[in-house]
Amino acid sequence: MSQLCILFLILCINQIHSICGQECTSTQELQNSLRQAQKLLASHEASYLQGLRNLKRKISQLQNSTTRVTRPSDASCTKLEAPLNGRKFGKILLPGHEVHFLCDSGYELVGSETRQCKDSFTWSGQQPVCKEINECASSPCANGGSCTDEVNGFTCACARGWAGPTCQSPTPIFFATTTNISAATTGAAASTSFPLATLLPFVQPSKCSQVQGTTHCTCEAGYTISGRDTSTCTDIDECEVFHNGPAGRLCVHACINTPGGYRCSCPAGYDLSRDGRNCKDIDECTTRQHNCTRDRLCINTYGGFRCVKVECPRIRNATYGKISPTHCERNPCPVENKACAQAPNSISYHHMAVVSNLSAPRVLFRVSAVRMIGDTLRFAVLGSRGRGHFSIQRSDRQTGELLLLSPMKGPETVEVEVEMSELEKRVVIGRYITKITIFISQYEF
Predict the structure, then answer these.
(1) Of 124, 125, 131, 98, whose CA–CA distance to 326 is shortest?
(2) Do residues 108 and 160 share a domain?
(3) What confidence category does residue 182 fall into, taking pLDDT thresholds of 50, 70 and 90?
(4) Same domain flag for 201 and 266
(5) CATH number for position 129
(6) Same domain for 170 and 89
(7) What is the Cα 125 distance to its own chain's centre?
(8) d(CA 445, CA 438)
């Protein structure tokens, strides 16, 4: 309100007081003065309100124009590529959305597992790479064997005299039997050939020579002298000799005895390794030897594969939407719906394959918070099915580790749920569920 208007109102009020102080002043004059003051106040009040509305409209226009300048409608973060030998999940490139990375079997992730599009249209974290796991780093081949690293495994080339997956088994020692003969044959060294007969593959004639009246008979590798009959060599059954010996087995799976040797075989879903003794899992998902439809994920397991369909949960008071093939997030809750706010903020699905009787204790899985809003994180294993085999422990303030407590024998499929709760002053402000499905092979390799 202008100073002139204020001055005019003061004069009107003084005039009214002056009129009220005169005994002969009429009531009509007093009412006229009051009406003039009310009109003046109403007029300036309307003008003042209109000015406020104009000011708000201009501020709003300035904010909109500023938003259009700083954040164009088509602006987004740059597209991220999947790492070599890995996969990327998440297609939305707007601020607040995340992209997740996962490496193929036999590779480990180096870099950020999750990256978020920031308000500045840049990505958090570092672009990850999938590095092949070097199984030879721990020198698994014993007794002078040389290790060859392979994807998701290794093979050992054993030194002479040793065999087994890690060169832990000594090979059979082939021996010769000497037999004394009549003194009539003494003299210069002579050679004797035994007549060859048609014999079975597992029986061969020995090779004998005479030196100073003594006959020395030897057998080919893989054969031994048959008792007192020095002329016959019998095949050594390496599979039987090394079946349950303290040094281990020749073959990781099945051993087949052959004339003068042996060969190893593998079950369906495996290939024989280059060392001829180990079995290497066939990755049907990578080599596209599976029959999974496009709406299902192919999960490689030891000796096979599984076709998995991931669907977001149906909860009465909340709805979920997929942001990646294995990650569901809760849609915004109405303000008045308290039951929705108590439902999990997100549910992630993970699948992993392990061999039977995997040694324990060992860490199987890690759950970590990308960013924290509250002041505390709490981790727990949900349900009772996995409590005998699993536990949860912390590795740092933002990471929980799923711990395998005892070996599990396959074939079996085990599901375990890990809950990460975020608290602020001991009040839960967010819940995040990770559902882990573990496919246990029937084999220990």
Answers:
(1) 98
(2) no
(3) very low
(4) yes
(5) 2.10.70.10
(6) no
(7) 18
(8) 16
What distance in Å separates the CA atoms of residue 282 and residue 296, rounded to the nearest whole number?
20
pLDDT digits (tens, 9 = 90+) for 304-351: 999 999 999 988 889 999 989 999 999 998 888 888 988 999 999 999
Please state, in angstroms and rounded to a whole number, the distance separating the CA atoms of residues 78 and 99: 12
What is the mean predicted confidence (pLDDT) over 140-155?
A: 79
Of 280, 303, 324, the residue that ends a domain is 280
Please check whether residues 341 and 422 belong to one and the same domain: yes
If we measure between CA atoms, which residue out of 433, 403, 437, 406 comes closest to residue 421?
A: 433
Element (H, E) at 348: strand 346-354
Separation of alpha carbons 220 and 351, rounded Å: 51
Nearest to 114 by CA among 98, 129, 103: 98
Task: Answer for the pair 72, 51: CB distance below 8 angstroms, yes or no.
Answer: no
Give the end-to-end CA distance of the chain in Å, rounded to a whole number: 88
Claim to verify: residue 155 and residue 293 sit in the same structural domain: no
Q: Which domain holds residue 348?
A: 288-440
Average pLDDT, the chain: 79
Say what angle helices 3-21 and 27-70 make with each other, to 10 degrees: 160
User: Are 250 and 258 in contact, with CB atoms under 8 Å apart?
Assistant: no
Output the six-digit token pair for 102.
């996962």
Task: Reduce the DSSP state of residue 223 to 3 states and report it.
Answer: strand
Let me know: does 290 contact 297? Beta carbons within 8 Å: no
- pTM for the model stands at 0.55
